[in-house]
Amino acid sequence: MAAPPLAAACTQAPAGGDFPLPDRPAVPHAEAAWAAFRAWGSPRFHVAPMVDASELPFRLLCRRYGAAAAYTPMLHSRLFLEDERYRAEHFTTCEADRPLFVQFCANDPDTLLAAARVAEPHCDAIDLNLGCPQHIARRGRYGAYLMDELPLVERLVRTLASGLRVPVSVKIRIFPELAHTLAYAHMLEAAGASIVAVHGRTRDQKKSHTVRADWDAIRAVKRALSVPVLANGNVRTLADAEACLAYTGCDGVLSAESLLADPALFWRRRGEPGGAWVPLDAPALLLEYLDLVDRHPVPNRMVRAHAFKILGAWLAEHVDLRNELHRGRADPASVRTLALTLRERIAASGRAAPVPVLTERARLRLEAEAARADAIAEQEREGLLLARLQAKRAAGAIAAAPPVGAGGLLETEAGLVAVQS
Ligand SMILES: Cc1cc2nc3c(=O)[nH]c(=O)nc-3n(C[C@H](O)[C@H](O)[C@H](O)COP(=O)(O)O)c2cc1C
Known about the structure:
NADP, alpha/beta, 12 strands, flavoprotein, 3-stranded antiparallel sheet, Aldolase_TIM, tRNA-dihydrouridine(16/17) synthase [NAD(P)(+)], TIM Barrel
């Protein structure tokens, strides 16, 4: 899918500079973008990318309950390309895991393309993270901090779009000024982006629970672009998802934090008039997740984090189990025992919901803080790995980066596992 020439109005526009809004430009690749989107069944409900949390078994669980597409966690393009262990731990997939967006962060077009080419045969789209607002992204020069380097963003997208067979998507945050957001979106589309996911918050609005996402800005982007547009932010229930689609006119929605607490959030049959009512049975969902982990193993830290999120307020009531989860190894077998114990206790209590000990707002705030801390810890681990890699390279222990197309994936019982050739 070759990218059209860059819309002249946006090429030189630095952040905070002049952002003239071009007329709606011709987008030669729009037809192909729509054809790909339709071939995936025009997915409306998406599992958002989440570091250490939108891993294979969690994606599969959400897909069972209404998610029609999913993103991998953000993968560091250079680590993915050069560090075999990083790849094996962070990227697994399987046949049922489609349509799949593999998300990378990057600031070097050639490295990004080389990493994307390794993942390309095993996914449906390659996504570029332009939304990460954490300090680690500032240090690493990626994510939302590339909003200060639009010519580089343009090169990253154009390089991907002209070098891959699968469509390129981007996940962006908005600028404080709508005109800037629209010019940015036009630039991305003109550079070859086939899908644009818009998180309706600015780079400075890091605490998503304190700031409502701006659905008006998302709606304006949807109206301005010719390729499919996805909305992100403030989707906490299925009703929110439907409302967001109706209000913004977007082609799909992403959910992140709320999906962690309720992986069945997108399940239409839950409580729908005439549909089966399925009460949220948190231990049952966790047990289902653990079955998937048995087939597609992931590190215990991910199991622990999902157990905390899915069991949520039940753990505030059963403090002994919470402490056990906190202090134990959190291997799938012991988390299974814990979930079964909790299920028995819930059945004996005769209640469908835990006794609230915190206000809903306070609980959401605490959960969001914990999730963010986990994500930052993971990104810091990546920073360390990268530093180690650089040190080895400097000492001559590692040869130059493998050529584009090197490496591949092995089919194992755990799914497809990345390997270096
Ligand atoms: C634990 C966690 C990890 C995240 N990791 C990523 C990521 O890897 N890539 C990304 O683009 N966004 C990431 N995000 C942001 C979400 O994808 C999403 O844009 C944001 O949470 C807003 O959506 P929400 O209101 O549904 O939570 C992460 C969010 C959370 C809570």
